[in-house]
Structures are given as C-alpha cells and as structure tokens.
Amino acid sequence: MPADPPGGRRAVAVWGIGVAVYFVAVIFRTSLGVAGLDAADRFHVNASALATFSLLQLLVYAGMQIPVGLMVDRLGTKRVLTLGAVLFTAGQLGFALSPSYGMALAARALLGCGDAMTFISVLRLGTRWFPARRGPLMAQLAGLVGMAGNLVSTLVLAPVLHGVGWTAAFAGSATAGLVVLVPLVLFLRDHPEGYGPAPRAAGAAPGGFVRRQIRESWAEPGTRLGLWVHFTTQFPAMVFLLLWGMPFLVEAQGLARTTAGGLLTLVVASNMVLGLVYGQLVGRRQSARIPLALGTVGLTALLWASVLAYPGERAPMWLLVTLCLVLGGCGPASMIGFDFARPANPAERQGTASGITNMGGFIASMTTLLTVGILLDATGDNYRVAFSTVFVLEAVGVINILRLRPLALSREAARSRVTVPEPEPEPVSRACPLPETAGREAP
C-alpha cells in the first residue's frame, strides 16, 4: 500500500463534505455566545448558571474526545460524522424548544456530544486523503472553516434572534444540520481506494484495543506536548467568543450590543486570516511551531493585562480592538498542538492522539468559563478579578510546554532520521558485455 495519499480534486470534495459538517457544528456550538444575555432572561438565571450551559457543553465535548478518537480509529470517519450530525442537530432543535433551564441544559449536552464527533473526524479525513506535507495546512484550513461558522453565529444568528425570537431562530438554524447530513451519507468516503488502514489482528479484544491505543498514544511526548499547546493557546478566545465576551464588552466596557458584536466578529476575522498565515509558516518550517505558540500566549497575556489594568473603568476602543485582533491568533496557535501529535503517532492511532490533544483547550475553557462565572457572582460582577483566571492557566500551560518540548522534539528528530537503503544494482544480461566501470563501487 502506498504510504502517502495523492490528494487531488476528489480529496478536496470529500474533505469539503466533512468540513461542512464541522462548519454547522461550530455554528450550533457558538450560538449561545451571541444569545447569552437572552438566555439569562429566558431562563431567569444568574452568571454562574449561565456559565453552566457552556460548561456542560464543553464538559461533554472534552469527555468525548478520547472515546471519539477511538471510534474514528475503529469504525471510520463516515459513521462517526453521521452520528455526530444527527446528535448536534437534535440538540440544537431541543434547545430551541426547551421550556425550562433543565431541559435546555440537556439539549446543550446532546449538542456537545454530537459536536465532539466532528473535528477529529475532519482531521482524520485530512490525513487519509492528503499527503503528510499538507497536514498543517489542512488542519489550519479546517480551523478556518470552523471560525467561519462562528462568524455566521455573530453576523446572522444574532440579528435573526432579535428579529424573530428565540424559538424560531434556533429551530430554523437546526435545519442546517439536515442539509449537510444528505451529502455526508451519500458521498463521503473514509479514504481513497487502495489507501485504507492496515487490517487489525483477528480476534483482538475491544478492551485490549482501547487500552493499547490510549497507552501508546499517551506514551508519545509529542502527544502530551500537543495537548499542552492546545490547552494554553485556545481557551482565551474560546471563553471570549463562547460566552463571556459579549457580557464583558456590554456590561464592563459600556459598549452597545452592535459594537460588541462587531468586536466579536473582529476576533473571528483575525482568526481566519492568521489561520492561513500560521498554516503556511508551520508547513514550510516546523521549527516555527514553538515560537508561534509561545508568542501567541505572550501577546494574549500582555493585551489582557493592558485591558484589565487600564486606569479608569473602561479601556479605550483602540485597545479593545487590539485585544480582539490578538485573540484571533489563539485558534490557529491551538492547531499547532496537532502538528506535534500527528508525526508522533502512526496512521492507525491518529484519531486517538488527536482526541487526547483536543482535550487540552476544552479542559482549559471549561475551567475558565466556570471560574469567571463564580468570581463574577462572588465579586459583584468585577470583571478584572474574574478574567485574571486567564493568567493562571496560561502560566500552567507554558510550564508544561517548556518541560515537554526537549523530549518531544528529540523523539521527532530521531524518527525523521530514516536511513534510505541504497538501491540494488539492476541485473545485467550475460549476453551483453559488461561496461568498463563494472566492478567499481558506484559513487
């Protein structure tokens, strides 16, 4: 079996179907970000209870990452993506129709379960349909499409929500799940013909498969480094876009909702542009991974500190704009985590390794979402105190990145130093005279 898939137009078409499913999942995931204040009014809840919506959704998402990675490795991409699309569509529709806080929580949990099955599946499609050298770019492009889904939430769902109301807006958006489900079922294929995964050993026990996949993936320093890169880089923008950005900009900074929505859109637009830049840089020069990741963390911390410590009650608009531009780099930087896990694991473990890596940012996001909500209630909506949580988690992440970096990079370098055997000489017909150089050692 050839080691590297060829790519090409069919690969782009199949990958595009998978990315469309992820695009819709992100719209549903981030829809609460533009409806947080509306949700608080609809269900009559405080900041902590409001944070529980996103917290539960992310808790389910993070908890599903390793199981989903194992499912992708064992069942294939198409089956997992199809199940994910059915679940997140049902969750979005349930959220639209929920009459109570408890039922709305259950709907968001169902949505998170389906959402959890999308991104790892798309990463798997990228490794199965495109050459390895395209891996960083395809991962960044997938993240870019996801941010486009976030953009749709901000630009489309927000005005629709305020125009037609809660039930009509969320129920109408749920139809997008049905739209992407049709080509997924009809046309998506797990891999090109002739490039399937190696067959598993007959009679292997499912429990043994699960334990082996997790143990061997975790044993790779590159997988653990990928997790901590994802942990440290993703959560500041995720928390801002998913829930707390709109309340912070409206309540703490005194901006109108339309202005605040514009700043959220700026985060998404910056993410999309920087995703292309980061993908090209990492694809061409692997040594840029750590500087890009740590540089993004440093800039994020600097801008958050500048906004929170600015004299007076409100930061100037130019500083808020700069913060949003820098937050746009968090998503692309988090994708670098997969560029450490991917070369550290063989093809048959890519789903599991990606699941472990993907847990990092969502664990950090869950922790921050909950902590910010608790601190807001405890301090009387003091956003300066609440958002200081960002610095604590970034410090923990940076320490672990620096700790794992030497071992992961040395293992990666050792793996890449493959000795290429010299080709055997072609047989020479006895009927032909040997050339004068016969017997000499080839240069």
What are the SSEs and their pairings?
Elements: H1 9-30, H2 36-43, H3 47-75, H4 77-97, H5 101-115, H6 119-129, H7 135-164, H8 166-187, H9 206-219, H10 221-252, H11 257-284, H12 289-308, H13 317-327, H14 330-344, H15 350-379, H16 383-386, H17 389-416
Helix pairs in contact: 1-4, 1-5, 1-6, 1-7, 1-8, 3-4, 3-5, 3-15, 4-5, 4-6, 4-8, 6-7, 6-15, 7-8, 7-11, 7-14, 10-11, 10-12, 10-14, 10-15, 10-17, 11-13, 11-14, 12-13, 12-14, 12-17, 14-15
Description of the structure:
- This protein has 443 residues and is mainly α.
- The protein has a single domain (9-190, 215-415), classed as Up-down Bundle (Growth Hormone, Chain: A).
- Helix content is 77%, strand content 0%.
- The protein has 17 helices and no strands.
- The longest helix has 32 residues, at 221-252.
- It starts with 8 loop residues before the first helix and ends in a 27-residue tail after the last helix.
- The model is unreliable at 419-443 (pLDDT under 50).
At the fold tier of CATH, the topology name is Growth Hormone, Chain: A
Tally of domains: 1
Structural class: mainly alpha
How large a portion of the residues is in β-strands, by DSSP E?
A: under 5%
Name of the CATH superfamily? MFS general substrate transporter like domains
Order of helices and strands: HHHHHHHHHHHHHHHHH
Q: What is the count of β-strands?
A: 0
Shape: globular
Which spans have pLDDT < 50 for at least 5 consecutive residues? 419-443
Question: What is the helix tally?
Answer: 17
For the record, the CATH architecture stands as Up-down Bundle
Helix content: over 70%
**First-last Cα distance:** 31 Å
* Radius of gyration (Å): 24 Å
CATH hierarchy, class: Mainly Alpha
In this structure, how is the largest beta sheet organized? Answer: none
Mean pLDDT: 86
